[in-house]
Amino acid sequence: MDIMNDNNVEYYPWGGEFTVCSPTSCVAVVLLNIDYTPSCDKVAIYGHLKTENIGVEKIVANVISNPYIRFLIICGDEIRGHKSGGSLVALNKNGIDKNNRIRDAPGAIPYIENLNREAIERFRSQIETIDLIGIKNVDKINKTIDECIEKKPSSFGKPYIAVRITPEAVASFKDKRALHSKIIIDYMGKVKKRKG
Amino acid sequence: MVDKEIPLIKAKKTPEKDVTLDPNGFFVIEINRERKQIHVEYYSNVYKDNRIVSGKLEKVFSGDKADALCDTITKHVPRLLPEHYMYIGRELQKAQYALEQNKKYIQGSC
Fold first, then answer.
1. From CA A21, how far away is CA A29, in angstroms rounded?
2. What is the domain count for chain A?
């Protein structure tokens, strides 16, 4: 099922392993090392984050495509080595430097290579990250989701599509005769043998 | 009398520490359960200080069968290391099994 917004643009264009829930909810949940399923009635989207580079990029591209999402709750134990949760928080707080590295990110290789600076600024403006890294208490996370919803923030406006994956154009030759190297078709549509 | 001797080579897994990263890029394989598709992203390597730190997304492949994905990837991403193609084949077969059996798929290392 494609999730379309008011402008008939598909939300969450990059794809990835996440679960799509209520399209107009203001909350998205990033799961680190945690076995928890947010209530689909309350959140727009949730999924796991693994890496501090491409994983972070996918989250940014997908959440800014849905302007209703205004809060990104990051919960569970940090991913060892990658420190992707901390890197996502750092991106929202600090942006990237001239080498595309997330400023002050704790991860080993927190580089943003597939998003332009405008997309990152949009992420920083549209989204407030809620840092629950290290927290696995489900009641605490659910309470935070409720608190975000109670704020009733407005939509950020138009979707921002940072990455678009376009189906390949495929040529269709229904008349296979035209592909045969030993024949030609004249202007009357008559099939003739090619000379030589 | 023996006309010809053929070597029998015992299989040995290359330890992960000895695996050569492919200079032509890497793949991320995921399952889209809603669309019942395997989603394969091909990235070219991004180097900083002579080490691979990330990738540029170059192509995305989608399908529900490992054989079709293998054939298509081979056609669209030439010149990978042979062991990389074989790794992709193994992983796509695992992904197809996980998709069909509704099991969790985690992309493995080389």
1. 11
2. 1
3-class DSSP state of A140: helix
Q: Which domain holds residue A81?
A: 1-196
Tokens of B3: 């006309």
Q: Can you give the pTM of this predicted structure?
A: 0.85
Give the phi and the psi of residue A43 in degrees, each rounded to 5. -110, 160
SS3 B101: helix
Q: Which one of B43, B48, B60 has the shortest CB-CB distance to A99? A: B48
Q: Which residue of B has its CA nearest to A112?
A: B54
pLDDT tens digits for range A131-160: 999 999 999 999 999 999 999 999 999 999
Which ipTM value was assigned to this complex? Answer: 0.88
Look at A99 and B32 and tell me if their CB atoms are within 8 Å: no
> A14-18, A61-65, A79-83 — which is least confidently predicted?
A14-18
CA distance A40 to A142: 12
